[in-house]
Write a structure and sequence with these properties.
6-stranded mixed sheet, single chain, Beta-carbonic Anhydrase, Chain A
């Protein structure tokens, strides 16, 4: 904790002063370029991954980068996305999963988190992911299985995202783009889903606007 306190002092005395004009401008309002939905995992830093400055990303985080379907009570993820799109005018929504995801281990092995009742309830929003893994990936195990689960979960949660009226309306008019990303912790690589080939590919090799999901999966 002491290191964090020292970090605050460093920011106030050095970091803030170096970007004071930026923060003064941000105090008057925000105009983010994208809404970035990702996991709560401490190893994932959206601003670091994208080299984004304060104010560029509207970030939504929770265990497993989950977006419960529209109409789900107490849906903070949907509420945040709705605000980003309808109020702030965001035209790109990125849903980013990652490897070594503890939430995905809980999805595949629910018995391992049975004492964590709140987390167990939350991960029921990944039930479709669990079924896909059970039906199609029983030949995999260990980290390979968890990584595939994280990839499939990104696509499942994007389908949930489509159920939000402001998203559905804008998609029908071509006014918004949905992006499916995967982040590899040990290499820093970002992979994007290409719906034309049905695979995640390195961002540098993406043939279209990186990770834009065109037709419904």
């Amino acid at each position: 904790m002491q290191q964090l306190i020292e970090g605050v002092h460093h920011f106030q005395n050095i970091g803030f002063r170096q970007q004071q004009a930026l923060f003064e401008r941000l105090a008057r309002g925000q105009n983010p370029e994208a809404c970035f939905i990702t996991c709560s995992d401490s190893r994932i830093d959206p601003n670091l991954i994208t080299n984004a400055a304060p104010g560029q990303l509207f970030i939504v985080r929770n265990p497993g980068n989950v977006v419960p379907c529209y109409g789900t009570p107490n849906n903070s993820a949907m509420a945040a996305v709705e605000f980003a799109v309808a109020v702030l005018g965001v035209k790109d929504v990125i849903l980013c999963g990652h490897n070594y995801c503890g939430a995905m281990k809980g999805v595949i092995h629910p018995e391992s988190i049975k004492e964590l009742r709140t987390l167990t309830d939350w991960l029921h929003h990944c039930d479709s992911t669990a079924e896909i893994i059970k039906d199609h990936y029983h030949h995999l195990e260990g980290e390979d299985l968890y990584t595939v689960a994280a990839e499939e979960n990104v696509l499942v949660q994007l389908e949930h995202l489509r159920s939000l009226p402001v998203i559905a309306s804008r998609l029908s008019r071509g006014l918004i783009n949905l992006h499916a990303w995967m982040y590899k912790i040990e290499t820093g690589e970002v992979f994007v889903y290409e719906s034309t080939v049905g695979q995640f590919k390195p961002l540098a090799e993406a043939s279209q606007s990186p990770g834009v999901i065109q037709p419904a999966r």
